[in-house]
Amino acid sequence: MSDLVTALASASDRVQEAMAITRRGAEQLLPEADWLRKLQRSEATGVPLRVKFGMDPTAPDLHLGHTVVLNKMRQLQDLGHVVIPLIGDFTTTIGDPSGRNSTRPPLTRDEIEANAKTYFDQVGLVIDMDRAEVRWNSEWSDPLGARGMIKLAAKYTVARMMEREDFSTRFREGTPISVHEFLYPLMQGYDSVALKSDLELGGTDQTFNLLMGRHLQQEEGQEPQCILTMPLLEGLDGVDKMSKSKGNYIGITEPAPTMFAKVLSISDTLMWRWYTLLSFRSEAEIAALKAEVAGGRNPKDAKVMLAREITERFHGHAATDAAEADFALRSRGGIPDEIPEVALPGAPLGIGALLKQAGLVPSTSEALRLIEQGGVRVDGAVVSDKGLKLAAGTVVVQVGKRKFARVTLG
Fold first, then answer.
1. In this structure, what DSSP letter does residue 374 have?
2. Domains along the chain with CATH numbers
3. Residue 84: beta bridge partners?
4. Which residues are annotated as a binding site for ATP?
5. Is pLDDT at 100 greater than 60 in this prediction?
6. Binding-site residues
7. Is the pTM of this model over 0.85?
8. Which of 142, 214, 260, 360 has the highest count of CB atoms within 10 angstroms of its CB?
9. Is 134 helix (H, G, I), strand (E, B) or coil?
């Protein structure tokens, strides 16, 4: 039996529970033994641990993939620890090179502030902001100055920096690396020194930067933080990580009917991974539900439960009930009570152009592709003629199961 297993077996029930919650869905917890000792010390002294998560406001909107780490923060917050949502207003001016094959353009101060304004409202849908310690890293980074920056840079070597995969790949391929990009992991690590963090969370693509925090804390004589990396959430397609650029995302501020329907569109296999990373149900509850499905229960029942939980988290109970009813109506081929009203000139108008102008498809070619697949209806009838032209009047147009518009042609 390893020393960690032995130490964990002798820990209190509360500490064992905290370890299980910390590990749930995580990619890595480093070093586990140190985190166990921190939890035990916190229980003995009554002093909560400090849990840090840095966010660079590079875009104003968050999606469910971003909430994987936020969910873990909320779980640790509910255990009584101090969570620190850190807005990287200083580091964003450098630009995070993580996973990049080119230099990331830094944002202007105005862009950073505009994006940050919406962050806290969205983060507050998951974390209890009244119990959180909100910080901005310009608090300590701006006063550092040139002298402080040079002293900080002296604490790490170029050889160690080039161990980072994206840097080494770009160097090997002759792709430019700006000197200022080396400063980003140093400044992120310095945040941990300034905050005296016990644990820093991030995605798996942030491992190098998180370890930098441990190194700099040791250099400053502090007890080094532990690091907890969470996996990158697969998007609706179940293949690529959730990303707005790939269109496989669910934004946390999307309308409740859209959010509910999108969750129901994922595969039965992906559903269980989303349960682990996005649900607040206990692992025992999820295992029991999975066993019921394996025993013959319709997996759609489990998916509806997940869709309700996620939608209710961001929109509340009443809106979720309405979203579920809306989905059921659409599934039966019914028309929702409220759909967009669009007025278009140019009758008679070709079906492809109509769908594009009504905002139901991004392009005419996409409209024609959907018609070939039987995914377009006009007044409930499937459209099979790609050359169809609609005369003046009002029709209800449907694309797929979720997109409707009442179009008046003039």
1. T
2. 3-230 (3.40.50.620), 256-331 (1.10.240), 341-409 (3.10.290.10)
3. 52
4. 244
5. no
6. 244
7. no
8. 260
9. coil
